Amino acid sequence: MEPMSAPSSRTPLRVCFVCTGNICRSPMAESVFRARVEEAGLGALVVADSAGTGSWHEGDGADHRTVAVLRAGGYGYEHVARQFQPEWFAGLDLVIALDSGHLRDLRRLAPTPEDAAKVRLLRSYDPAADAGADGRGLDVPDPYYGDLSGFETCLEMCEAAADGLLDAVRDALGREPAPAP
């Protein structure tokens, strides 16, 4: 996992999760991360949101299976799909891609090399994740065309990476991780 660059001088630190249509993976990752941020007492210092690389679902809510899995996991839910815009880079500290295709697309959209460096894969923050020989082991598979079990797996992957991402955000904020209970 690469260290996160220092956040801009503005507060709060801003994180945007990005998948394809912004109705499955990225709203799920956003909800999980928001919960971790609140649990850590960093709600005033970190803002999380999400977007998609495409506009197919712009204005829609999340997929009903995403909502069901989030609710079953005890996560809050509030979402309207939108498409990521290159000009957003200037206002973001970190852009979290859900798979290697999104990573590539977002880095191409970045107006500057500094903006491209803000883009990271979510599962790069999961210490148990293995990139594999082709690097795709860090992808969160798109559950859209499958059944509920794919959404449950997606949630598990988001949860597994959330603590590592939170640690990176704490480091970027210059705060020490909270002591274990």
From TrEMBL:
Instruction: Please give the start and end residues of each transmembrane region.
Output: none
Matching entries from SMART domains are given as: LMWPc
Hydrolase recorded as keyword: yes
Phosphotyrosine protein phosphatase I domain boundaries: 13-168
Organism domain of life: Bacteria
- Catalytic residues, per the record, are C19, R25, D142
Identify the keywords attached in UniProt to this record, alphabetized: Hydrolase, Protein phosphatase
Q: What is its EC number?
A: 3.1.3.48
Enzyme class per UniProt: hydrolase
Task: Spell out the Pfam families in the cross-references.
Answer: LMWPc
Q: Please name the InterPro entries in this protein's record.
A: LMW_PTPase (IPR050438), Ptyr_pPase (IPR023485), Ptyr_pPase_sf (IPR036196), Tyr_phospatase_low_mol_wt (IPR017867)
The molecular function terms of the Gene Ontology recorded here are: protein tyrosine phosphatase activity
Indicate the family of this protein. Belongs to the low molecular weight phosphotyrosine protein phosphatase family.
Q: What is this protein called?
A: protein-tyrosine-phosphatase
Task: State the organism's lineage.
Answer: Bacteria, Bacillati, Actinomycetota, Actinomycetes, Kitasatosporales
